[in-house]
User: Fold this.
Amino acid sequence: MKKQGKMIGMFLLATFSLYFTYGQKKAERFPYKQSGLSKEQAAIHLLSRFTYGYNSNDVRDVQKEGLEKWFFKQLRAEQTDEKLELLLEPYADVLMDNQSIVQKYPRGPRVRRMMINDGFIPKDSVDNRSKFYKAAYKQYMEEKGYRPEGELFRKFIATKVLRAAFSANQLQEVMTDFWFNHFNVSFTKPQSAPYIPSYENHVIRPYALGKFESLLLATAKSPAMLFYLDNASSTVERPKSKNKKGINENYARELMELHTLGVDGGYTQKDVSEAARIFTGWTVYPMNGYGNPNMLKSMTATNNKMKNQNIVDGDFIFVANRHDKGRKVVLGQQFNNDGYNEGADLISYLSSRPQTARFICKKIAIRFVNDKPDEALVNKMADTFLKSGGDIKKVLTVMVSSPEFWDKRNMYDKVKTPFELAISTVRALDGQIENPNRLVNWVTRMGEKKYYYVAPTGFPDQSSYWINTGSLLNRMNFGLASISNNASGVDIDLLELTNHREPESAEEALEVFARLLLPSTDIAVLKSRLSPLLTAQNLRQKIEKSSGGTFYEKTDKKENLMAKGKKSNNAMLAQVVGLIIGSPEFQRR
Amino acid sequence: MYTRRAFLKSSGLGLFGIGLIGGIPAFVAEAVAREKNNPLYSKRKVIVCIFQRGAMDGLMAVSPFEDPYFREARPTLFMDAAKSGSGNNLIDLDGRFGLHPGMKAFETVFREKRLAIVHGIGSPNTTRSHFDAQDYMESGTPFRKNTTSGWLNRAVGLLGHDNVTTPFSAVSLTPSLPRSLYGDQAALAINDLKNFKIQGRGEILNQNAKTFEDLYDKTKNDLLRDTGKESFEAMKMLQRNLVKNYKPANNAVYPNSSLGNSLKQIAQLVKMDVGLEVAFTESNGWDTHFNQGKDTGIFARNVGDLSKSIMAFWNDIEAYQDDVLVMTMTEFGRTVHQNGTNGTDHGRASCNFILGNHVDGGKVHGAVDMLAKENLEDGRDLRVTTDFRAVFSEVATSHLKLKDNKMLFPDWDGKGIGVMKG
Assistant:
C-alpha cells in the first residue's frame, strides 16, 4: 500500500511541477529562515499544521518536493486517491443522498409506526422491550432491507477516520474538520442525525477550501442544520391559527453569534428577531416519512397564490406561505418582501462584514498558528478575507506566507486533540486501520466524542480544554495500546518500519523510533528517562510475561480468535514505541 | 488559568508508591479507606444530580389520585391509593398525592421529612424535543443554545475555593462529559473508577507508570507537566483508596443497574474524601410512549431502579448524610391523557425528588391544579408552575453554600420555593 502511494506521489510530482504556481503568480518562498527555522523544522511545522500526522520520511519528502509546492498542492486538493477510494468502498452508504439514507436507515420510532401501519404487529402489543417485539422488529427490518440507524453513524465515523488517516488531500480533511466544528451539528439531536453524513460529505467538504459565503449558504439550506437549530419549524406567526408554532430564533441567533459576526459583532436582539423572520419558510423537503407531507400538498394547492415563489433546491425548500412577508431591518439593512432572496441576501451581507472576517480569521489562526494568535496576523488575514470575497485559499496563503506563522515559538505549541493523536499515531507508524471503530472508542475515552458535541459552539480549540486529569492517563494508555491491533484496531508492523533490521538493543530501538516519530526533537530527556527501564534486568521476559494484559481481556472472544492468527510485534519494540506515543512530546504538534 | 497546586501539596501522597497498588492486603486497604484520608476535604458538601433522560411521567410517579379528571384521562394507567383488590396501590403521601408503589423505598425518608418532591416543575421554554429540553435544562439557559457552560460547572466555579480544587471536585459517572458539566472548571467524566490508572499488568505496568510519570515531570510544556503531575497524584489517591470488592455500609444493596453502579462509585468517592462536591449521573428509558404499565411494567421497573439505587446510596453513605444531597431532574413531563398505545407522549411539567437532611421534606411542593382541560397547558399537558431554575438554584445555593449565585442561571432572577430548610 505504502509503495503504491509513493508511485502515485511521484507521478503527481511530475505533473504538478508544470504548475508550480498559485493564481497566476509564482509562489514566493515561505519566510521561515527569517524566524530562525531550518528547512527541516519548517517542513515539520508545515506538516504539523496542515496534516493529521507525519513521520521523518514525510519530512524528508516535503523538503525534497519544496515546502511551497507541497502547500499549494494541498490547497488545490485535487490529488487522486485510489488507496482511499478502495478503503472507503465498504462504507459506500454514507455517500448516499439524504433521501436514500433515511429510506435505508429508518429511526426506531418510525419503524414501529410502519410495522403497525403494515399490520405487521398489532397496535396494542408494542412493549418495545419484549422478546416478541424485538424478534418482530428484526424480521421486519430484514424483510424491508432496512438497517439500524446506529450502523449508519458507525460507518460514517469510520470513514472520517479513514479519510483523516489516508487521504492524500490532507489539508482538505483538516479544513473539513475545522468547518464542521465551526458549523457544528450533533448526533445527539435525533431529528438532525440522519442528515449528518451527507452534511459533511456534500455540504462541508466540497466548500472547505472555497468561498466562505458559499459554505455558509450551503449549511443554512442543509437538513442537518435546519433541524439542529430548529429553523425547519420556523414559520410566520399566525395568531389565529390553531397550530401554535411560530418563529424560532435559534438559527438566526447562532448565524450571527457563532457562524459569522461573533458574540461581540455588534448586533442586537432586535437584529436576531428580524433575521429570524427573514428565514421563516426555510425548511426541509419532506422525505420518506420524515417532515410534513401536508406541507407539500398545501404548497402546490391550486388556491395557493404564492406557489410560484416556492423554491426547491435538493433537500431544501423555501415555502412561501410560511414566510413572514413584512418589512425587516437587520444591522440597518432593509429586506422587503422578496421571499427566499431575503435570506440569501442576508447571508451574503453577513459574509462580507469586517467583524465576520476577523472572527473567522482569528478562528483559523487559532487552529493553525497557536491558541492566542498575533493581532497583526489576524488583521492581515481579515484584510485578505474581505478583499477576496471570503476566499479561504487566499486567507490560508496569506497566513502561511507571514513571518508570524513561522515564529519559532509556534512549533509544537498546539496540543493534539484526541482525534489528532490517534490519527497521527496511525500516520507516523504507517499503520493499517482494520477496525476504525475501535480507534474511535479510544478517541472517546480520551475526551473527544466526535459528532456528539451537544452545543452549537463545537469543541473548544484550546489546549487547556483537551489536557486535563480526566483524559491524560488515557492518552498514555492509548500509547501503550496503540501498537496492539487487538486494542486499537490498528495494524502496525514495527519491523517493516526499521526495514526489517531488528534493533539490537532497547536503546537502539528507542533511538530509531524516536527519530522516526519525533524528527528533529531533542530526545535526550526521553532517552535518559527511558534508559533505566530499558536496561533493567530481564526486561524482555517481563514484557513478554505482561503482554496479553488488560487490553486483550477487553475485546470479545471472536476478535481474539481473529487476532491470534496474526503475527504480533516484538514486545520490546512495542514497549518502546508505546512509551513514545504516550510521551508528552508526542501529544504536541 | 487557575491552579490546583494546593491539592498536590496537601495530599501527602508521596508516601504511597504506585508499586503498592493491588499489593496491599484487603483488610489493610479497607482500614485505610475508613480513615478520613484528607482532612482538607472532609467537610465538603456534595450535591449528586441524576438526570432522568427521556422525560419521566411525573403524574404517574406522584399521582394526584383524588383528581377525577386524572382518573378519566388514564383509563388503563390510573392507580388508586386505596386497596383495590389486585396489584399494589399508590402510597398515599398526603391525602392528595400518591407515590408509585415501585418507589416504596422512598416512603421512609419521605415520612422522616428528608425527601421533598416538587410537582409541576419544568422549563419556561415550551419545546417538547428531548434534545432541546435537556440542552436547556443542563445549560441552565432555556432560551439560549450557545451558552458554553453547563449550570453544574458554573456551580463549581462559584464554590469560592480561591481557584484551588481537586481533580475530583466535579465528577460525572458517564462515558462522556454531560452538557451540565461543560465549562471552564475541570470536570472528570469516567465510567468506571477502576480504569483511572495506567493499564496493563505484571511488573512492567509499574515500570510504565513510573516512566510516564517521569517523562511528564520533566517535559518543558507547563500544561502537560502540571496536568501530568495532577493525574498521577489523582491516580494514586484513587487507586490507594479504591477497595477491591467494595462492601457498602449498612448492608446496602445497590440494584445491578447502570444507575446503581454509578451511585455505588459516587458513594466510594464521597467516602474517600477526595474533595468531591458535584457528582452527576443519569438514568435512561423514561420515554414511555408505549405500554408504560401500572404497578408492573416499564415505568414500574424504572422507578424501582431509581428509588432503590438512591436509597442504597443514601444508606451506604449514612455517616456523610449531613453533607450530601441528591436531586433528580428530567427534561419535561408527559401528556395528562394516555395515548392510543397505553403510553404517554411528550408533555410539559413533571416532578423531581430532593433528598437530604436539610431539605424541607415530607411534602409535595409546587402547585398542581385540577387536571380539567382548561387548566392544562395547550389543553393537554400539566402546566409548569415552578421554573426548574427556582429549585436548582435554591438547592445548589443553600446546600453548597454559594455566596453569589447570579451566574448560576444568568438569565433568571426569580426566588426559591422553600424546598430547603432555613
User: Anything to note?
Assistant: The beta strands of chain A are 21-22, 25-26, 282-284, 311-313, 316-318, 328-330, 333-335, 432-433, 490-491. Residues 415-589 of chain A form one domain.
